């Protein structure tokens, strides 16, 4: 298998982190230079279907894009350690929090960075300060929801580390490109973030 990835983008890091957690070493990494537009070439789009990273090319030529879909596929092949839930209840809870973290935290942070960081202008075209501000406030609103959740939970979804945590950490880490830090009063969020960043696989995902 081949993983088309980019160290400049946050979503491919989700897959690399999952691979590190599971000790997956038999996937070839192919770096895609998104600043040079490699993801928009006819060859890449013919292979993947969309100008996005990451993408996982299987041995039979099938290509899977969308980071969480790739991670779910890898979970099926390498079930331990479990990151998506072991039964229907756990899987639903993990899915719920993963989607919340993606929609209300990671995506707004990405939009904030894309409309703030000078180097992102090449990707975004026109940067709009109001879009950046709105999405920062939207993300911070959900950070308070997470802080409340983490007041009596070690991790976001279950009593162990899951894909929901990976999505949230990487979203917050991406904001460091514009020197953003979550509000200091969110102490439970800060504790959880420190715990997740201390995992050995977190470094492998960068």
What are the main properties of this structure?
single chain, four-stranded mixed β-sheet, 7% strand, alpha+beta, 206 residues, globular, 4 strands, 9 helices
What does this structure look like?
- It is a single chain.
- The protein has helices at residues 10-22, 42-48, 67-77, 88-114, 121-124, 129-150, 163-174, 187-197, 200-204; strands spanning 2-5, 28-31, 55-57, 63-65.
- The chain is 54% helix and 7% strand.
- The mean pLDDT is 94.
- The longest helix is centred in the middle third of the chain and has 27 residues, at 88-114.
- The protein is built from nine helices and four strands.
- Helix 1 packs parallel to helix 3, helix 1 (10-22) crosses helix 7 (163-174) and helix 4 (88-114) runs parallel beside helix 7.
- Strands 2-1-3-4 form a four-stranded mixed beta sheet, covered by helices on one side.
- The protein is globular, with a radius of gyration of 17 Å.
- The chain is an alpha+beta fold and 206 residues long.
């Amino acid at each position: 298998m081949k993983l088309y990835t980019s160290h400049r983008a946050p979503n491919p890091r989700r897959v690399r982190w999952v691979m590190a957690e599971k000790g997956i070493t038999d996937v070839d990494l192919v770096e895609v230079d998104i600043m040079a537009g490699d993801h928009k070439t006819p060859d890449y789009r013919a292979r993947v279907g969309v100008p996005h990273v990451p993408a996982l090319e299987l041995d039979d030529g099938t290509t899977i894009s969308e980071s969480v879909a790739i991670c779910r596929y890898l979970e099926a092949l390498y079930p331990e350690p479990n990151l998506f839930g072991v039964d229907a209840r756990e899987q639903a809870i993990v899915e719920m929090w993963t989607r919340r973290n993606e929609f209300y935290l990671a995506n707004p942070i990405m939009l904030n960075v894309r409309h703030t960081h000078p180097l992102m202008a090449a990707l975004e075209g026109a940067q709009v300060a109001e879009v950046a501000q709105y999405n920062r406030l939207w993300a911070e609103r959900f950070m308070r929801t997470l802080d409340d959740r983490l007041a009596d939970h070690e991790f976001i979804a279950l009593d162990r580390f899951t894909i929901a945590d990976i999505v949230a950490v990487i979203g917050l880490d991406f904001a460091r490109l514009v020197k953003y830090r979550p509000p200091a009063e969110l102490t439970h969020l800060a504790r959880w973030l420190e715990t997740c960043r201390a995992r050995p696989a977190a470094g492998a995902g960068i």
